[in-house]
Every structure is written in C-alpha cells, then in structure tokens.
UniProtKB/TrEMBL annotation:
Its main location: cytoplasm. It comes from Actomonas aquatica. It comes from the Bacteria. Belongs to the phosphofructokinase type A (PFKA) family. PPi-dependent PFK group II subfamily. Clade 'B2' sub-subfamily. This is Pyrophosphate--fructose 6-phosphate 1-phosphotransferase.
Length: 419
C-alpha cells in the first residue's frame, strides 16, 4: 500500500472542449468523495490560468444532481485555456499556489500539450521535495494521443460526423443530377481520425455509399487525382460528397489551407481546406455546382448526437485517475485499453506522462484502402464500438438542458500574480 497522502485535490481542463470532457470531472468528484484522505475538492477555472490566478471553486459544494448532470453537458464546465507555461516564474507560482492550498493531488484533463504541462509541474514538485501526485486524464476529439487505444471525446465526434453525412446524403440525393459536389470540412490537425470516422456512414456491403471521398492528413494531396476521383464519383452517383480533415497536406507536407497566425503552443490556425477544394472543383469542372459546409465548433459540442459509450468511458477515466493517485501513482496518464475478446470491452491503464507529452498518433496506413480515399474493415471494426448508445440528454420545453456549476469561489491566500 502506498503511503497515505492527506490533503486537497485540484482538477482542471485544458484545450478544446469535447462532448464528454465534463463526464471525466464527474468521475473525479464522485470517486474523490469516497476517500477520507481527500479533504477538499477544488476545480481550477480555465486550466493553468486558474492556478496562476489562484481562481479555484469548491466542487464539493455543488449538488449531486449538478455533478451527475455533467455526464450529458458539453463544453468545459470549469473553463479551459490554451495558455503555455513558459517562464520558470510560472512554474514556481503553480507550486506556490499548491502549497498555499495544500493541493496534494492534481488531475488535468487535456490533450498532448496539457499532458506535457502536467508532467513539468510534477517534475518541479519532485525537485522541491513537495509531495504531489499528478495524473493526466485523456481528452481530445482528434484521437491522436499515443499509447491509449482511443480518447474520450472521439466516439461522440465521429458519431456526429457520420450522422451528418447520412443526413446530407439524403438531401443531395434529392438535389443532385450528377452535377453536385459537396465538401464537408471536419477537425483534425495532424491526424485523420475524425475524417476517417465519416466512413461509418456507409452501410455494410455498400462501398459506394457517401462519403465518396475522404481526404486525410496521412495521404499527401494530389489535385490531379482528386479531380479524377470526383469525376468518377459523379459518373456513378447523382452527387459527390467529400469529407476533408482540416489538416490536409500536399506532397511537401505543407497544409493546403492555414492562417499565418499560431496559438500559444505554436500550432497553425487551420480552416479553409473545404474552400480550397471548392476552388479546385470550380476551376477544373465547368458546370459543376460545388458547395461547402464546415462543422467547426458544433462537432465537438454535439452531445445530442453523442455516444453513450464515450460518455461512460470519460467518466471511467476520471474515476480511474483518482484511484491511481490514491494508490500512490504519479506522473501518469490514464489510458483506455481494449479487451482481446470478440465482444468489445474497455478497461483503464496507466502510461508515463513523458510518453504522451507532445506525441501524435497517426491513423494506421494499413487501415486506409489503396485508393487513398476510403477506409477498410480494420478501421470500421476499431471505430464502431466507440459510437454505441445515445447520450441521455434531458429536455425542457423541447430543448436540451445542461448542468451549470454554482462556482463557489475558494478564498485567495496569495498576492496577485502578473502574467
């Protein structure tokens, strides 16, 4: 048994929200209430910014109904950020705040960059001899975290994308006369997991169902091949429905559409791949009507199209994080492990934060068909269990209702910090 560590816990959220990231917070809070060594349960508002600003809320004071309601509430209930801890003073401030509030357990729900931040905070605590257990909770719709089989948030986003494709196909079948090209742009910076998920819209044994073309960052884009693929689809069907990941790159590895601006972590701001393809179609195929649609932020907030399996596993990840920390684990991220049986099962494991930080898991090339624009059965078998079940969202007067935290502030104990 690990030595009992008595003190308070702090949980935060970082990066882009998902339809299920709040379910992980529910898992943390519900499990934390089971352990006497945990005295207070705090949430940091807006990730590491909340730590630097000493802006905490008392999660234990929230009603159990509100905490349970997080299971079906999209967005990040604690608020999020894309702030990067850069200077040593930032890290020193984090430890100063932790010490002032007796934070002994820190849980951070986020993606690649967030796990790197958690790892650095933990290492500094060890250098200073401060007893702190740090566990990362996986979160990203991009599904690109290394080691873990899949990430909470992914199942819900691809369920929404595939549903959208089926609905659009019904519309286009009515409107098209072999002259309509429709381009749907989805998220996915450096990996094509989300775009690949659109392939679940195809019926079994109907390979020519929409989407007719899926464009992935893992496959270098060729304008000539693309136009030929579009022409082939239009000869076969009344329309051509394309799904493109925003991180599409050319043969030189350059994004086909990216703004010059970057975020705090140096990532290019993407968006515009669909417009790029629309211009190509209109320039090379006279008389063809090309339309674009961008799912944008709604795709990661679409809890009404959410996967119950996804929400349950997000809760499980939060719960497992607390259990691991109580057992003495630190510097780890919770992972989701797929069972070996034919029937899908999912358990949790742990992986070193250093193995997760800043890594990217690409879509396996062997899951992409030789045509480069469709997925094979290996991907379908992988992704199908992740979209099972419908998130149970309560409605009031015809519209969904979501949980709202009261956000009772924890008293500040330190001087204001200048960012």
């Amino acid at each position: 048994m690990a030595e009992e560590l008595v003190g308070n816990i702090l949980v935060g959220q970082s990066g882009g929200p998902t339809a299920v990231i709040n379910a992980s917070i529910e898992g943390v809070v519900s499990e934390a209430l089971n352990h006497d060594c945990i005295e207070e349960i705090y949430g940091t508002l807006n990730g590491v910014l909340g730590i630097l600003n000493e802006d905490f809320i008392d999660l234990a004071s929230e009603s159990q109904q509100t905490i349970r309601g997080l299971r079906h509430t999209p967005g990040a209930a604690l608020g999020t950020c894309r702030y990067k801890l850069k200077k040593q003073a930032d890290f020193e401030r984090v430890l100063e705040v932790f010490k002032a509030h007796n934070i002994r357990y820190f849980f951070y729900a986020g993606g690649n960059d967030s796990q790197d931040t958690a790892d650095k905070i933990s290492k500094l605590a060890q250098e200073q001899g401060y007893a702190l257990r740090v566990i990362g909770i996986p979160k990203t719709i991009d599904n690109d975290l290394p080691v873990t089989d899949h990430c909470p948030g992914y199942g819900s986003v691809i369920k929404h994308v595939a549903t959208t494709v089926r609905q659009m196909a019904c519309d286009h079948a009515a409107m098209g006369q072999s002259d309509l090209v429709s381009i749907l742009e989805v998220m996915g910076r450096n990996a094509g997991w989300i775009a690949a998920g659109a392939s679940l819209a195809k019926r079994r044994d109907h390979p020519h169902d929409p989407p007719h073309i899926i464009l992935l960052p893992e496959v270098a884009f060729s304008a000539e091949k693309f136009i030929a693929d579009v022409q082939r689809a239009l000869k076969r069907d009344k329309f051509c429905l394309i799904v493109v990941g925003e991180g599409l790159v050319d043969a030189d590895g350059n994004y086909v559409a990216a703004a010059e601006a970057t975020d705090a972590f140096g990532h290019a701001q993407l968006g515009g791949a669909a417009d790029f393809l629309q211009r190509l179609v209109e320039a090379n195929l006279p008389g063809i009507k090309a339309r674009t649609a961008k799912l944008g932020i709604p795709q990661r907030a679409a809890v009404t199209n959410g996967s119950q399996a996804d929400a349950d596993e997000a809760f499980l990840a939060g719960q497992a994080a607390v259990e691991a920390a109580i057992d003495g684990e630190t510097d780890k991220m919770v992972t989701l492990l797929r069972g070996d049986a034919d029937h899908y099962t999912c358990e949790t494991g742990l992986a070193p934060l250093a193995d997760i930080a800043n890594g990217v898991k690409k879509l396996p090339k062997e899951w992409i068909n030789e045509d480069g624009i469709s997925m094979n059965y290996q991907f379908v078998r992988y992704a199908t269990p992740l979209i099972q079940g419908e998130t149970k969202v309560p409605h009031d007067n015809g519209l969904p209702t979501f949980a709202k935290l009261d956000k009772v502030r924890v008293q500040r104990l330190l001087e204001t910090y200048e960012l």
